[in-house]
Amino acid sequence: MVAHKSRTLFLAFFLLSNFVLIAQEIRHSDYERAISFLYQETNNKTIFNISPAPRWMQDGEGLAYAHYSNAGKEFRKVSTPKGNITSLFDHQIVAHDLSALINEAVVATALPFNDLQFPEEGSASFQLKGKTYNIDLSSSNVTEVNRQRPERNLFESKSPDGKWIAYSKDYNLFIKSTATNEEFQLSTKGEKNYEYASSYGWGDMIEGENGERPRRFNVNWSPDSKWIRTNLIDLRTAEKMYLLDWSQDELYKPKLLSYYRGSPGDTAMVLVTPVFYDIDNKREVKTDLKRGTHVNGTSHRWSKESGVLYANYSERGYQALHVKKIDLNSKTSEELINETSKTNIDNFMYMALEDSNQLLFLSERSGWRQLYSHDIITNQSKPITSGEYFIDSIVEVDEDKGTIYFRASGREEGRNPYHTQFYRIDLNGKNLRLLTEENAHHEVSLSPDNQYFFDNFSKVGQPTISVLRNSKNGKIIKEITKADVSTITAKGWKAPEVFESLGRDGKTIIYGAMWKPSNFDPKKSYPVIDNSYTGPHTQMFPRNFRTAISRNNQPLAELGFIVVSIDGMGSSGRSKKFHNYSYRNMGKNLTEHVSTIKELGAKYAWFDADRVGIFGHSAGGYDAGHAVLEFPDFYKVAVASSGDHDFRMEKAWWPEMYMGWPVDSLYNQVSNVTMAGNLEGKLLLVHGGIDENVNPSATFKMAEALIKADKEFDLLIIPSQRHGYRGDYSKYFVKKRWNYFVEHLLGSKPIWDITWN
């Protein structure tokens, strides 16, 4: 009997001890520590030079950047070709002069500006409180620039040769001679909602029941002033979306707002027709370019040849894309590129190199995003690069030297496929050269003369190193600076850790990172929070040191969590096959998140995969809501902010790009709204009241479905905020999100009275 009682007491003590380890009391000091790790509290305060931003000076002068340390901020100059580093100017003189000009005390080590421009040799300029100031780099004296800027009429456009002024009147396009003031009407059929020389604006807000759309004017002159390209905007059948602004202090009823924003599958959208005019003959020139919508309209680039331009457009659904050469003189067109895909065409990019009669473009037609050349004369395409890697972008083309500079990832064996490198290659596809040898992510800035580049390279766990390099061979000329983490390291901070797992195909490596509390104790058990955004156009793996710090995962970890960010199959930056996993399959984008977190839980005793939460914003808000509905036994707590919970309510281009067009039953299958009955855990829905990007009706519809399903949930509407929450509203939301996880995932009583600047 005694032995049994002892065993009972021991078991009770054991259970109680474990409970203490799992549900720890949270204190003010934990929140204070979390606040100290916010990006605005670390950037150039406890971590210095996370990502220096170079500003190239006039050719041959070098570059300038702001250097930060515990002593303050110093603007420095890096001279080329040797990379000598000096102070850009005398900071004491600048502070003295500026103090007198603005009638405020200015500290030399904390000059109240960051971005410098170099309009001419020997001087720098900056903006402060709406005024422009100039620094004489030889004397360091500061003067106010009293430029009398001519009043700019936003509703007219002067031709490059100065002989004509284009403007709209009564919804039609007119031109007027600057010599004689003689007026010519180019279009005649314009009327309200059928507007020539206009454009569609994503943020065009209409106030009131009978309000007017903000006036728009848009024309594009040819370089020789002989042609105009513009649009005919047809709003007559377009449907609106609506908002109610309850936040106006002086109003005691809501303000009605509306805007044009087609949803997936809509036919009642803003219609856009490209229109061209011959200035010499004062007449419209017809082309075979079709009328599109505001989500798949036509863009163009003028040729050096008079009356010739290149036009590109996507067909609805983004499975076909065209680049045409249009000759307005002969009223003919020739299709140069016809890109098609069984899935979608994402991030198409091209440029014209007319001196060599070719177009450069990026295509995934081989299964990987590679660089191609199209001969304008023969109308034939051929690859410039090839291989199983992803070309991110064309940085610069030196046509005179026959050189292309580009960014790419995944080419070098043994490197993380998300880390971008910098390359050069000849236009003929020969002499491909890697210019960044270090195994890291590289962010580069090429000099105006293409002779040098500034390189910030880093990894998640490797602070930024900034160097000046030769763009011919990539050789480091000078190390400029290193990110200084000594202050934050002294507080116990450790860099996030990178981990790997396998995707759903059983062979593709998936990458992620985790943030631990600075007071991490491996003997404790920590709940896990997934910071998610599986929008297929975005990567969540933090490729560089700056991203690892700026996403503010560390502050949340300080409250007693392990925070993870994972890139599952279907995200961007890898093969076309990899990207296609998300096409018409958006509801499964969390698959690798679940399997990877389970794997980490089996590997580490301190990683509690039985207590998992998730948060995300926008498409990440969809993720958070979807997680607790698709995987109710796995995800226990979710905070979904500004979420597009049903893609049928989104702006048309994004779902039609990744979910397909026309809209079909798949949209219904992946909708959070139709799955509301699956909710088992805790869910906080958050939305800005006047969000014109993701209309708050998506969250309201989600809430309605949850109520009908008799599911308990929490709802926060921030009446005055749009898609992003700003200022005090952002702080309020962050506290709300922190405390939601503290209460429901950590099991502690949250604290509200915490503040920060």
Features:
single chain; 757 residues; alpha+beta; Rossmann fold; eight-stranded mixed sheet; six-stranded antiparallel sheet; 33% strand; globular; disordered N terminus
Give structural notes.
This protein has 757 residues and is an alpha+beta fold. Among the domains are: 26-45 and 487-746, 3-Layer(aba) Sandwich (Rossmann fold); 55-144, no CATH class. Helix content is 18%, strand content 33%. Strand 35 and strand 36 (476-482) form a beta hairpin. The protein is globular.
Total helical segments: 14
Distance from N terminus to C terminus (CA atoms, Å) equals: 62 Å
Estimate the strand proportion: 25-35%
Largest sheet: 8 strands, mixed
* Assigned CATH class of the domain at 26-45 and 487-746: Alpha Beta
The CATH topology of the domain at 26-45 and 487-746 comes to Rossmann fold
The secondary structure category is alpha+beta
Strand arrangement in the largest pleated sheet: 37-38-40-39-41-42-43-44
